[in-house]
Amino acid sequence: MTILTLLDHAAVFVFALTGALVASRAQLDVVGFVFLATLTAVGGGTLRDLLLDRPVFWLEAPSYLGSAGIAALIVYFTAHLLESRLKTLFWLDAAALGSAVAAGVGVAIEAELRWPIVLVMGVATGTFGGLMRDVVANEVPLILRSGELYVTTALAGSLTALIALQFGLALPICLALAALTTFLLRAGSLAFGWNLPRYKPSPPRTF
What we know:
Keywords: Cell membrane, Membrane, Transmembrane, Transmembrane helix. By secondary structure, this protein is mostly helical. The protein is 73% helix and 0% strand.
């Protein structure tokens, strides 16, 4: 199993857990669990592959769909045991975000694309599945939650991989650094409230 396949599998499974947790909060049936879990799991990678005109990863290996389905069933039967499904959702999403960003970056680097495209692929792969999950479930998208870092963490993780690559580090190490950077920044935002300054409109001038 290659590093990219491993990252895709990790992102699919953990993102599927988050989709199923959202389904549990919406009190959906088991089919709704599987649908929302699968949508979340493959959304970012599908967008990446379509944009790069490469075979869509889960069409090439349907086992990804099986992994998402298993994650959905696990949550369906155990979600009631969690003390806080929302808090668990946030932390699982942070872990999945790191894996997906690294997977997107790795695919773009292996395709020998220019660095702006590498950054876009990292961010898109990491964020699009979660965005689809939240929109379909009529939740406020995590990507837009006020006062938290999200897209910034994906961008920073992607940039970390590119910088590490320039220093001659092996691709697996670069991708591991990308995943770690993304997760740590997102974790810091969740645990300590790290955020970027928000826009504050000034009152209109009177002349």
